[in-house]
Amino acid sequence: MNLKKIVFLGLTTMALFGACGKDEKAVATKENDNIVLRVSWWGGEDRHKKTIEAIKLFEQAHPNITVKAEYGGWQGWQEKITTQMAGGMAADLMQVNWNWINIFSKDGNGFYDLNQLSSTLDLTQYEQKLLEQCSVNGKLNALPYGVAGRVFLYNKTSFDKAGLEVPTSFKEIKEASVIMKERLGADYFPFEADYYGALLLMLYKLEQETGKPFIVDDKVAYTEEQLKNAADFYLDLVNTKTIPSLEDRAAAGNVQLDQHPSWIIGKFGGTYEWDSASLKWRDSLQEGEQLVVGDYPTDLGPYNSGFTKISMAFAINKDTKYPKETAELLNFIVSNDDAVKALDVSRGIPANKKAVATLEKANLLDPFMLEANNKVISFAGNGIHPLFEHKQLHTELKDIVDNLGYKQITSEEFAKQVLATTNNFLEMNK
Question: CA-to-CA distance for 175 and 168, rounded, in angstroms?
Answer without folding.
Answer: 11
